[in-house]
């Protein structure tokens, strides 16, 4: 895939989900090594990346972590990989790897299914501030 930044991991997220947008803000605040870039799943680039890695957007209700040329992760595995990359206390999330992925994803799916009811939904994707614009593709 062309034109993606070198040495950056890309987080694809639901751009209209308040929980997802809050998670993006949290990651930006704690991404001290400037590892991550962000793309809304609803955007053209988000759709292009999903097609490229073979993820059917109509069947996925998840955050996706894409490490270009290496691998991609979704659902609970993406959350754990992101937390590990943030380091510090967040790297302790890796302890959840002891649980089967199927169990982790069952819990993830329950939250994902209810996220709009619990946290709300925006009418359109978030527009980043000028200071944050470089973090979004």
TrEMBL record:
Transmembrane segments: none annotated. It comes from the Bacteria. Signal peptide: none annotated. GO terms for molecular function: protein-disulfide reductase activity. It holds the Pfam family DCC1-like. This is Thiol-disulfide oxidoreductase. It comes from Flavobacterium johnsoniae. The lineage of its organism: Bacteria, Pseudomonadati, Bacteroidota, Flavobacteriia, Flavobacteriales.
């Amino acid at each position: 895939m062309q034109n993606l930044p070198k040495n950056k991991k890309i987080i694809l997220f639901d751009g209209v989900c308040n929980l997802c947008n809050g998670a993006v803000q949290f990651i930006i605040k704690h991404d001290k090594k400037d590892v991550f870039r962000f793309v809304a799943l609803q955007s053209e680039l988000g759709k292009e990346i999903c097609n490229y890695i073979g993820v059917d957007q109509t069947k996925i209700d998840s955050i996706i972590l894409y490490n270009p040329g290496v691998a991609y992760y979704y659902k609970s595995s993406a959350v754990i990989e992101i937390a590990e990359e943030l380091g510090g206390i967040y790297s302790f999330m890796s302890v959840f790897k002891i649980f089967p992925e199927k169990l982790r994803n069952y819990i993830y799916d329950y939250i994902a299914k209810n996220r709009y009811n619990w946290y709300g939904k925006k009418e359109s994707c978030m527009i980043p501030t000028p200071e944050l614009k470089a973090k979004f593709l």
